Amino acid sequence: MAVVEKVLGFLERPHKEMGALEAKQRKLEEELRTKAAVEKSQRQATSAQEAIQNSMPITLQDCIGRRFIFPVEMCRSWWVS
């Protein structure tokens, strides 16, 4: 009986090790996904800031012909109530 248990223990060990390796792999994949998401959001934030800095002012004209020029920095911070 002890021999059978010993053999079964040897047979089950690779499954336990594989489970641990799969868990470790899933954890590493999740960390990579998180890092990729953070880097993507940082790239988008810097590209948005560069677009705002390099953008032209907003120019509007009413029906009388008056021209209104608004800097983009002012327009992007307006809140509608």
Describe it.
The chain is mainly α and 81 residues long. The chain has a domain at 2-55. It is built from 2 helices and 2 strands. The chain has a two-stranded antiparallel ribbon with strand order 1-2. Strand 1 (58-61) and strand 2 form a beta hairpin. The radius of gyration is 30 Å and the shape is rod-shaped.
Secondary-structure blueprint of this entry?
Elements: H1 2-54, E1 58-61, E2 67-70, H2 72-75
Antiparallel strand pairs: 1-2
Number of H/I helices: 2
Query: Major beta sheet, specifics?
Result: 2 strands, antiparallel
Mean pLDDT: 78
Classify the helix fraction into a percent range. over 70%
Alpha-carbon Rg, integer: 30 Å
* Oligomeric state of shown chains: single chain
Distance between the termini: 79 Å
The tally of strands reads: 2
Question: What structural category do the secondary elements indicate?
Answer: mainly alpha
Overall outline: rod-shaped
Strand content: 5-15%
Give me the strand/helix succession: HEEH
Which residues form runs of ≥5 with pLDDT under 50? none
- The strand line-up of the biggest sheet is 1-2
